[in-house]
Amino acid sequence: EMSAAGSKYIDTEVENAINGVKQMKTLMDKTSKDHQAILHTLEETKRRKEEAVQLAREKEQQLAEKQEVCNETMLALWEECKPCLKHTCMRFYSRTCHSGSGLVGRQLEEFLNRSSPFSIWVNGERIDSLLERDQRQDRQFEDMEERYGLLEDGVDDIFQDSTQVYSRMYPFFRAPFGGFREAFRAPVQHIYFPPRSERFSRELHPFFQHPHHGFHRLFQPLFEMTQRMLEEAQGGWERPFSGFAPGRVLAVGWVDERMVCREIRRNSAGCLRLRDECEKCREILSVDCWQTDPAQSQLREQLEDALRLAERFTRRYDDLLRAFQAEMLNTTSLLDQLNRQFGWVSRLANLTQGTDGFLQVTTVLSKTPNLEDPSAPPDTQVTVQLFDSEPLSLTVPGDISWDDPRFMEIVAEQALQHYKQ
């Protein structure tokens, strides 16, 4: 009789937990629709950004083909510009950055040897910076999309297990849950992006085999990575060398210096920003290469327009990634709370319910009377087994009699709390 009363309480808690999992699935379905809208906007923004970069490269190539009249003058200036540019950039790097000057020097030497004076004349580092930024954005997106997919998979796994629990407990009362089961359909088809990493999935999927671990741990490193990349991106559109002059260290804050150091280590074209510090490099900028061909002036204008457009769409893409991150973090926080409260029910999918229910009472004993207050009724010790747990010894206050409905409610509540922990 006690087991039946306790199981009745547990049945109610299981049903409440199943309804909580239903909330998780409903929230995930709604978020997935919002997520699809963000993906489509990201795809469109990426397409327009790539078109603008491609246009800029075409205009750069067209300008380069028209430089024959300037080649002799510009090449002579370039040979004098290169050593000054290298010396100025390395001096800045060695004074501002902590390590790696030897590697940076070799990379810079190779970059200058394969570059032409035209790189300075058309602000060549802007295209290089855009291409590198595009690669970083792709890596960031793939990481976020991978983790978001794991979040969806985890909620779906918990939901499927919970439907099994409900079906076994209430085989003749499927209607309240049936409509929700129909809602469990194949996920919305995603637009094409690079595939998720199987290695990554195998590493993180165990989080969802134990619901009490929570979802938030998936996104802690991602949050830090996103903040770092957005800080770098913000600095990339400024001219972080603007405070530099020969003989003194860059006059910017520590964070900006750190971003500049990373930029030079990753991309030697960043040193082209220092062209104003070298006289011969400045002279390249002053060479008028379109006097004999006014069309070159128009080409350069078109190149600048394409670069500005590409940079604008790149910023827009960063804003969308930030919104994507905010969506994930907000949803993850809510799902994490629901999972900690209700996710335990999914662990019951593989259990077999006994004839007397999930809670089995094996022993009920009156404890030794309290010596400090002999008149007080002694507490009751109850040994129970809940689901697949080891036997638990629980204590019920002595002022609650065995036939009080609250007695088994207290026992069942304590047993469930232990099980969840």
Automatic annotation (TrEMBL):
GO term, biological process aspect, one: positive regulation of proteasomal ubiquitin-dependent protein catabolic process
Residues in Clusterin N-terminal domain copies: 1-202
GO cellular component: chromaffin granule; cytosol; endoplasmic reticulum; extracellular space; mitochondrial membrane; nucleus
Clusterin C-terminal domain sequence ranges: 203-420
Family matches, as Pfam families: Clusterin
Record GO terms (molecular function): misfolded protein binding
Top-level taxon: Eukaryota
Recorded topology in the membrane: Peripheral membrane protein
Assigned keywords, A-Z: Chaperone, Coiled coil, Cytoplasm, Cytoplasmic vesicle, Disulfide bond, Endoplasmic reticulum, Glycoprotein, Membrane, Mitochondrion, Nucleus, Secreted, Signal, Ubl conjugation
InterPro entries, per database record: Clusterin-like (IPR000753), Clusterin_C (IPR016015), Clusterin_CS (IPR033986), Clusterin_N (IPR016014)
Coiled coil regions, renumbered to chain: 39-72, 296-341
Similarity remark: Belongs to the clusterin family.
The protein's name in its UniProt record: Clusterin
